[in-house]
Amino acid sequence: MYKRQVGSATAFAKEFTLPEAEVTVALQSDGSVVVMEEITFDFAGSFSGAFRDIPLGAGERIVDVGVAELGVPYRDGACAQLGCRGAAGTFGTTVVGDVQRIVWHYSATDERRTFEVSYRMIGVAVAYDDIVDVNLKVWGDEWKTGLERLSAEFTYPGDATPGEVRVWGHPDRVDGSTSLGASGTAPSLRAAGVPAGQWVEMRVTAPRSVLSSTGGAVLESGPGLQRVLDEEAATSRWEAAQRWFGRTLAAVLILGGLASVVFLISAYRRYGDEPRVEYDEKYESSPPTALDPALAAALAFQGTVPAAALSASVFELVRLGYIAATGVGDVGEPDLELTMGAAPVSSIPTH
After folding, report:
1. How many CB atoms lie within 10 A of CB 329?
2. What stretch of H or E contains 233?
């Protein structure tokens, strides 16, 4: 359903914004569709070319391509390769895979310019026994710059009465609206702040009687209105499900984040920024353990005993009387002379 698009372009270099785009979709009496796009660029810097890629579905083709500016047509026959150079006021077109590419050349520096791109689409409208269905994107998803304002109008030959013409716009996440006008028979679409990479779709059904032939349309036997209504209802349900999922996911993330914050605050208030121990003494006159220094160091350092621990063990033996230590040498830098102490070695405690 979302296969056709009418708006996707970019300039070759530098930076630009897109203040406005006006699109007219005109259903013809033979079922072909003529599209006119007026795209306004605000250029910052120097630019010389732009392009439009229009996807083609199965059996679809584009003819009568034109580019103009202020009603003055550009000359056809220029190169249509991206990045190629062409004379200002010329354009070219080519088919690349499943897209029709339109490339036009100009010269602009730090200014606002509006380009008019037009073409006729064959095989886009679907003619049923009761209605003709035209479903295409009036703004494409290949734009790398957001669009400030979009307006689209749909016209058709002949007359219709209120209730015979219907219009839909998608997706609902875009800030936009559709209308049938005061007459109830003039479909239009408006959108604002369309993000970069976001398509906008317009779908219109009109009575089959507005066509005098179907040479430019696709024929489908049987009634089509109920089929279209069912498709649109399914699309509405899908978009509603997406909205619900988005809101639910956001709520879960928010609640999960709040729960994490509450947990962290509670843990900090209870334990502080360091583990709490049941000990409140500020000064110890002796080690708070019966372990020898070397053994305590071995446990603390996972088996590797530093030299300081060995020295500490020796001084512990001196303190306990198993080894006698006598200062010798220079007073400024004394040495210790170690001898066996009064306590028998066999009585040295082990752990």
Report:
1. 10
2. helix 225-271
